[in-house]
Amino acid sequence: MKYLAVALLCLHALSAQALPPMPKLPDDTPIAEFDDGTKFTMGDFKKVYSVLSPAQQQMAMRDRMQFLQQWAFMRKLAHMAEEEKLAEKTPYKEAIEQYRLQILSEAKINDAINQVVIAPDEIVKSYENNKSKFSQVKVKALYIAFGDSLNESQAEAKAKKLLADARGGADFVKLIHKNSDDETSRAKDGDFDTLRQTDNIPDAFRTAVFALKKGEITEPLKQPNGFYLLRAEEVSYRPLSDVRDDIYNELKNAKARQWLDRMNLSTVVKVLNPAFLGK
Hints:
elongated; Chitinase A, domain 3; alpha+beta; about 280 residues; four-stranded antiparallel sheet
C-alpha cells in the first residue's frame, strides 16, 4: 500500500524549461473519458489542479497524459474501495476522519482570514505608530580588509585611525578613495546602499546604522574579512505607499492570530482520567 502511494505521488524530474501554460479550453470541454464512461472536462481539471501541491501542479502541466492516467487509476481504486466498504473499516475509517478534520479546520481558518477586514485608517495609524520600522539610511562605506597585507588587529587599528580623521574633519570621500578596499563602492565615491530595517543585514550593522543621524559615522563594524566604516548620507522613512501592502498583511495576520487564540482558549477539554496524561 505504501509503495502504491509513493508510486502515485512520484514526480518526474523537472527540466529547466519554463512551465507550459494552462490549456486555453472552455471549462465545459471534455478532455478525457475514463473506462467507466465518465467524461473529464477542462473545468474538472482546473478544480483538481487548484488543490494540488506546487510540485504536483508542475508534474500535471509537464506530463498531462501521465496526470490523466494517474487520476483515472486512483478513481478506479477509490471506486473499488467504496464498493468493498473499506471506508467503514479500521484503520481507513479513522484515517479518513483525520483527513476530514484537518481539511475542514484548515478551510475554517482560511475562511476566517478571508473575512478579516482592515480599514484604511488602521493602516495609516499603524504606519504612524511604528514609523521607526520603516526607517532607511543611505550610507557611504569605507572598507579595510585584513588577510593579505594587514592582519585583523592592524586593519582594526587603521579603521579606527581613519574614523578619528573623519570625525576630526577630514574629507570622508577622499579617505575612501585613498584607503577603501571595496572597489565597487570606492568607484562611486563610497556609495554603498540604502539600508532598511527589514533588510537581511548583520545585527551589529542594524544597531549601528539605525542609530546614526545624518553625517555621523559608525564605529568599525567587523565582518569576516574586514572592517566597515559607514556614514549616514540620508536618514528617512519609506513612504506609506511603499509599505501599505506589508502593513495590511501584517495587520490581517495579527487579527487572524487573535481569532485563532480566542478559538483555542474557548476550546475546553475535561480530562476524566489523569493517568492518560502520565500523572
